[in-house]
């Protein structure tokens, strides 16, 4: 499944290159072979063979606190240097970045910022500025001081850029801003914005088996509401100005060429472009992810 050769019982599924779609396949395989249902939360809490075996042998499984829908998703917690922060794309979840875990420096924790409200308890934000301020507070609660390293795929990069500008406004230093085929505003993407039906189709195709059956319908309703609201807010959003250099990963080929030039009014520094042979929607897959993480590893090596 992972193409990783020999796998030890203590190796993490995500560190070996697992990502959200492969979690789906893993859960399906466990169901077919063992006849048991594993919710997505269990894979997050028990990502190694040993931990999954312990869960299956126990009525309740091990006590884990890794909530896959938490506002701050702990992708890896090892390392004593400043973390790497990934910001969710349009679906509101940072699960697409899980496969990056084993490709990034081992001396830095990796966190994902996720939208609030998948359990229906949080009101939807009224603006991107409100989201950005909230996300910056989440970052500062984990990492009170810089330098900060912010990254995001698609509209996650748009949020990461706005967060970087907000951190600068508050007097913090941003050491890395990485944008993965992102645009400054949803209306500039050159493609139709996703609709409610698009979000429902996406979750039906990819995530049905990732959530326990009893949770699925409410999860989808909440997820669709988050996605539709986020798309609406992003469509009318105007990016702030970030003062510093940025790294831009350009998915090629595409008719529009590159989005990097669209950022020049909003980035007062040099935009360093790296072309990645990948469709926009496939940049989190193992091949493109390895190229992207190699550049990021080089960028943070001198911090």
UniProtKB/TrEMBL annotation:
PROSITE patterns: CARRIER, PHOSPHOPANTETHEINE. Keywords: Phosphopantetheine, Phosphoprotein. InterPro entries: AB_hydrolase_fold, ACP-like_sf, PKS_PP-bd, PP-bd_ACP, Ppantetheine_attach_site, TesA-like, Thioesterase. SUPFAM superfamilies: ACP-like, alpha/beta-Hydrolases. Residues 1-60 form the Carrier domain. GO terms for biological process: amino acid activation for nonribosomal peptide biosynthetic process; antibiotic biosynthetic process; secondary metabolite biosynthetic process. It comes from the Bacteria. One of its GO terms (cellular component) is cytosol. One of its GO terms (molecular function) is phosphopantetheine binding. The keyword Zinc does not apply. This is Nonribosomal peptide synthetase DhbF.
